[in-house]
From TrEMBL:
Organism the protein comes from: Methylocystis borbori
Domain Amidohydrolase: 347-426
EC number(s) stated in the UniProt entry for this protein: 3.5.2.3
Protein name: Dihydroorotase
InterPro entries in the record: Amidohydro_3, DHOase, DHOase/Allantoinase_Hydrolase, DHOase_cat, Metal-dep_hydrolase_composite, Metal_Hydrolase
Length: 428
């Protein structure tokens, strides 16, 4: 059994607890993998490693609820080793792996494989999300109970919607009986078949558009099924005011629903596609600027619960194509925090609220003990300077693929240390 890491004593830190929304100055002591003391730390073991933060932020590590990790079956795009290396560099201490692998995560043996690979090669925590239907085909419900016992934390078919309402109703009912969380990608696959947001800009580029109604129609159906079944439901990524209105009404009615948004849809809009930039071909597509601003406002007020990276590595062969033929997806786990800090620097979102959507709120939804600065909480921590500038250089990112939408962008927020269970896994 490996020896436990030595105690860590962080001094002169700006302690931000997103769970309570508090910000204080002081220190924090880590011992035996948990937070042993914080605030005015009075004493520490002699063998402690002392780290002077110099006023940097010390906060709970980020929890990314949607990331493609490549294994099994797509190791040419990403591996658990490379994805967790990128996560550690970006301050993410827990990755929820999507079920969109080859084979899909629809069998307890595949769940076990992901967990073992993460244990052997991962730098941060990896939690598998299992498929909602067998083969992610939307036809037959997967064995949710067995998958949950094997270690699946939620159920989703990835970026595929369950088209059949009866199948979706049965899946929600089945999940409810196990207290399981259903994470669904709400987009009508027929109406939403366009390659970018429908509107004037798509017409000028000569590209087929996906209307925002494609998302709203599917989400509205799902929310009605949640009311019918009482199951816990999480809308994976919302991008439109139509969806926000529906979710607000559902939450006001007391339904057990939550929602997420990708960092791309919070910080970019359809105009950033510019001259057919395929790294910004995403599913769902980037929307208009007024929709982006509405998402930011919904995040600030707490209507949107979670920010995800929607990390989706694609190799050069699938991206260096005409826009209509290129694959969907962008990497994002390593730049999620820095991109989100754009909203803090612009004054649109407070730092505690941003961090809550990336740590404490995902932990609450998934039932995890992480995401808080409290005595006895797991010592999953990040130290970062929110004002430190850097230019995104794809060649320096740790993912196997380099399809970042922030190529060459000037961002702020350098992560100088990432701690998982009391052990430093990244140090700049």
């Amino acid at each position: 059994m490996p020896p436990s890491p030595p105690p860590l004593l962080f001094l002169n830190a700006r302690l931000v607890d997103p769970g309570s929304g508090s910000e204080t100055r002081g220190g924090l002591l880590v011992a035996d993998g948990v937070i042993a003391d914080l605030g005015q730390v009075s004493s520490a073991p002699d063998e402690s490693r002392v780290i002077d933060c110099g006023g940097d932020v010390l906060a709970p590590g980020l929890i990314d609820m949607q990331a493609f990790l490549g294994e099994p079956g797509a190791e040419h795009r990403e591996t658990i080793a490379s994805a967790t290396l990128a996560a550690a560099a970006g301050g993410v201490t827990t990755l929820v792996a999507t079920s969109a692998t080859f084979p899909a995560v629809d069998d307890p043996a595949v769940v076990d494989f992901v967990l073992r690979r993460a244990r052997d090669t991962g730098r941060v925590r990896v939690l598998p999300m299992a498929a909602l239907t067998k083969g992610r085909e939307g036809k037959e419900i997967a064995e949710l109970g067995l998958l949950q016992q094997a270690g699946a934390v939620a159920f989703s078919d990835g970026a595929r919607s369950v088209r059949n309402a009866l199948v979706m109703r049965r899946a929600l009912t089945y999940a409810r009986d196990f207290g399981a969380l259903v994470v669904h990608f709400a987009q009508d696959p027929d109406l939403g078949a366009g390659v970018m947001n429908e509107g004037d800009f798509a017409h000028r580029l000569g590209l087929s558009g996906a209307p925002r109604e494609a998302e709203a129609i599917m989400l509205d159906r799902d929310l009605r099924l949640v009311a019918l079944t009482g199951a816990r439901y999480h809308a994976a990524i919302v991008t439109t005011t139509l969806s926000l209105d529906a979710l607000r009404a559902a939450k006001d009615a007391g339904l057990p629903v939550t929602c997420g948004v990708s960092i791309n849809h919070l910080t970019l809009n359809e105009n950033d596609i510019g001259d057919y930039r395929t790294f910004l071909k995403l599913r769902p597509p980037l929307r208009q600027e007024d929709e982006r601003k509405a998402l930011v406002e919904a995040l600030s007020e707490g209507l949107i619960d979670v920010i995800v990276s929607d990390h989706d590595p694609q190799d050069v062969e699938t991206k260096r194509l005409p826009f209509a033929e290129a694959e969907y997806g962008a990497i994002g786990v390593e730049t999620m925090l820095a991109a989100g800090l754009r909203l803090v620097h612009s004054g649109d979102v407070t730092l505690p609220r941003l961090l809550a959507a990336m740590s404490s709120r995902p932990a609450e939804i998934l039932g995890l003990p992480q995401g808080r600065l409290e005595k006895g909480a797991p010592a999953d921590l990040i130290r970062f300077d929110p004002d430190a500038p850097f230019v995104v250089d794809p060649a320096k990112l740790h993912s196997r693929c380099k399809n970042t939408p922030f190529d060459g962008a000037l961002l702020q927020g350098v992560v100088s240390a990432t701690v998982v269970a009391g052990e430093i896994v990244h140090e700049a």
